[in-house]
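Reader question, answered in our methods column.
A reader sent in the components of a multi-part assembly and asked whether the whole thing could be modeled at once rather than chain by chain. We filled in our standard form and ran it. Here is what they sent:
COMPLEX SIZE: three components
ENTRIES:
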Amino acid sequence: MNTQKMTFSSFIKTHWKTIVFLGLLLIGIALANEFADSYLRRILNLCAIYTIVSLGMNLVNGFTGQFSLGQAGFMAIGAYTVAIFTVPVEMRASVFYLEPMAPFLANIELPFIGALILGGIFSALVAFLIGYPCLRLRGDYLAIATLGFSEIIRIIFTNTQTITNGALGIKGIPTISNLWWTYGIALLVIIATILLVNSSYGRAFKSIREDEIAAEAMGIGLFKTKMTSFMIGAFFTGIAGGLFAALLGTVDPKQFYFTLTYNFLLIIVLGGMGSISGTIISSFIVTIGLEWLRFLDEPMAFGLDLPIFRPGFRMVIFSLLLMIIVLFYRKGLMGTNELTWDFIRKKIRSIQSRLGRKTSIDGGEKK
Amino acid sequence: MTTPFYIGALSIQPVSILIPIIAFVLMMVLMFVINKTKVGMAMRAVAKDYDTAKLMGIKINNVISSTFGIGSGLAAVGAILWCMKYPSVLPLMGVVPGLKCFIAAVIGGIGNVKGALLGGLILGFSEVLMVAFFPALTGYRDAIAFVILIVILLFLPNGLLGQKQVEKV
Amino acid sequence: MSLLKTEKVIMQFGGVVAVNDLNIDIKKGELAALIGPNGAGKTTAFNVITGVYTPTSGSVLLSPANENDSIDITGKRPDLITGLGIARTFQNIRLFKELSVMENVLIATHQNVNYNFLSAIFRTPKARRGEAEAKEKCEFLLDKLGLIDLKDEKSSSLPYGQQRHLEIARALATSPELLLLDEPAAGMNPQETDELTDFIYQIRSDFDLTIFMIEHHMDLVMQISDHIYVLDFGCTIAKGTPDEIQNNQKVIKAYLGVDADA
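And here is the structure of the entire assembly that came back:
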């Protein structure tokens, strides 16, 4: 970040490629919103939502180096907040048909954006409660404790019949999430993350990832800094959960089983722990990949009467993928690098020179 | 094995007695392996200091593989015992018990076999007793493990029997 | 006036007494050294002073310039102690390896940020000003230590000697009154050690520092120290000026390894 004041024209000059790219993206969203079928739209929406969750997770796991696995729980909080506060009051009796909604909630209805932000805030508050005992723990202890918390949240939601409608879930949530909402918020989250990571706070996060003892000796309060990162991550995740609820129109506890967190773990490991652009790219790859691999879930027999493909088989493939990445490609797509125009230029150049060398050895013409 | 016998008004299935006995015997065997054999010594060395163990000529990969093998084997025995008591098999039946086992190990103190036993007992008893005494909380059965975990880690970050690790600066 | 005082500090690990009855009194502005054979408990003493370990008993007192009384810093959190004006380097260099030279130094200024993370995200004028000031300060420091041309390099790619310099730069960025150097000359050849001597003199006068260091190079220690403390098996066996230490029988015994019962 340049601290000198930038004039408008110099800003355009240095960032024109990014501006053009964003413009194209905007047109793309508009086109997709108008013309794409609902299945494609839903996948694209999911891509954006997963991007938000994964960025929140990467902030904690990749940048601050704390192995947290509570994402599903934080998403559930955001999703349920939106569900509880946006279902129209007159519809609530039919949704909560087993037991009526608790009276103190039954007549509160919030606008979507308000419920969304409230969901984020609730998530962050729960993150504070979770973080208070857990962030003092190291590595795998933190992972298991956060995983446990996300399970507790799910179990609580399954049992609080008058607030969350228990195992039945809440139906009839106004499906407000469209591509503008999801991509708009995803963009805001991306920008906020970039600005945060490149600030003094971001450097403090990274110092903890690199060496806790040295960070502490440099005056970084470990607990406070970890907590900041953890709460911001949870806030993003809560908002994504809210978008998720308003996309599907229904929430129930089974959607937020802790295996959901593994999707995000796969995304950040594949994209690169500590890379924002890597996270975005791999959110798209993983989300689209999960859909595309759905054919593996269709029954299909090879030779004999032995069905190889069956429901759940795509998860086998995905687990294999994760193992391969971890074994052979530790740093993921981007490592801790960012996909900037400079980075692309360098990559293209190195590929060109490699190709050039190869063709010249073959005696072929240079491209 | 599942036909119950009676002591007074108590009806007891023989498996319910067999399972703890087998578990206890296996724990003894495991402790023998870890504390008295060469492989066990190598395991402890690797746990203490990975790099130094390597320098001392311990074949790290072999040790890790054998540890993994022993651990997986014990998990299989556990599953068999489970199925003797609850005879039904599902592909995903291991997920929640697996998680709880990890919690039991953490509660007892990672790296301590007796701690794992203690953690397992505490978890098992508190789950059963909670449901027995507070039937209203039955839905929260799976949550109790995590609650205990967090409460214990809050006061004893290394678990009940775990040793404090001093990081060298 | 004394800046740092330890009173009867004992540090036990299980049955091992790493530091036994440590009494140190460092005057403001002086250059003190802590010497002793390997395993004498020197680094442990540093760790007790900087809060990495809480001593089994005894107390550590700091008298910063802006306070009238001395503050008891025994067992305080390391980051708080750093905030009170003690900075340190590490024996086995602990840089933030994946980060650039500039980032390494900037991190040490984070304790002074007076804006919250939201201001940082929104880049409010206050945050911009803070960031600019921090950058200016770090560039000044890097310039002083001859690292300014390397500021965008990854810190782990620096040669060993410069990594040591960077550690000192990073410590200085916390604006300390007392600088603890843990074997600054380790792994240096005689010429580099000479340069280090000048360098330590220079930073002491430039930043108005009190320096307390652990060192094995006796030439260096004898040349620059005002006071020397000698540790052996956790006990302070001698303290005094370089001349006194050089002629102290106990010290000679500890170093030359005459029978322990002699």
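What stands out: The interface with chain C takes residues 1, 3, 192, 195-196, 199-204, 206-207, 210-211, 213-222, 228, 232, 336 of chain A (CB under 8 Å). Residues 55 and 345 of chain A are 25 Å apart (CA to CA).
Send us your own complexes using the same form.
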